[in-house]
Amino acid sequence: MDFQNRPGSKVGSGGVAGYSETNVDRRERLRKLALETIDLNKDPYFMKNHLGSYECKLCLTLHTNEGSYLAHTQGKKHQTNLARRAAREAKENNNIQPALQAQTKVQIKKNLVKIGRPGYKVTKVRDPITRQLGLFFQIQYPEIGLDVIPRHRFMSAYEQRIEPPNKAHQYLLFAAEPYATIAFKVQSKEVDKGEGKFFTHWDPDSKQFSLQFFFKNDRPGMYSEGIPPGIERAPMVNPLNPYNAPAMRGPTFVHN
Fold first, then answer.
1. By C-alpha distance, which of 176, 178, 124 is closest to 153?
2. pLDDT band at residue 248, thresholds of 50, 70 and 90?
3. Which residue ranges are recorded for the region named Disordered (predicted)?
4. Residue ranges matching CATH 2.60.40.790 in the chain
């Protein structure tokens, strides 16, 4: 820094620099040092606008040249915003980490090699009282994975992409790793999930998954009081009609 040629200075000696001059010299030295060590092309917050000036996207400040921007990056405002940004990103990463672990587990399951379709048996059943139609499924999983329980769900015909959708049918899916998922096409009727009408059972010893369900009757009032079709109800006896009485009572005499 040139300390000569100042008011009150002697030839051959340096003048006293003020605070503003020292600050300007310090910023100039920082700018030169930053230009030598920092690559602005790798700075994510450095941006050149259409007017030819430079902007800091982190602090939303405007600078006339690269040196001014570099001096700003060494200042308190920029460093404080960097610290806040780092703290916020660390907090977000801690919240995202459990979700990433769950996604990793799902990916591991999806990468398992399928060993084929399981064996199955389907039996048509009918409730002896309500005469409801139903199905009984028995799925065999002899090579099922450890601690894996088979799952099932009903799927609409419009969810699948194998066949043209038909609103008259729905699909019942069974899945258990490492077996391939299997589906059965059934009638698109409402399933009765009342007490004793729908049940599932997994037998870990025989490795068999069982499911039974009944469809709801189209006309629930036709089988009232548990009387199945084919059995006629006894006719009601009208007590006011003497010809429908099972036995005619004789006349009653009153003796004095």
1. 176
2. very low
3. 1-22
4. 119-215
How far is the C-alpha of 217 from the C-alpha of 251, rounded, in Å? 51
CA atoms within 13 A on the CB side of 146: 0
Does CATH number 3.40.50.620 belong to domain 119-215? no
Q: Is the pTM of this model over 0.70?
A: no
Name the phi and psi angles at 61, rounded to 5.
-115, 155
Residues 6+ apart with CB under 8 A from 86: none
Residues 6+ apart with CB under 8 A from 96: none
Cα 86 from chain centroid (whole Å): 29
> Of 57, 86, 87, which is closest to residue 73 (Cα–Cα)?
57
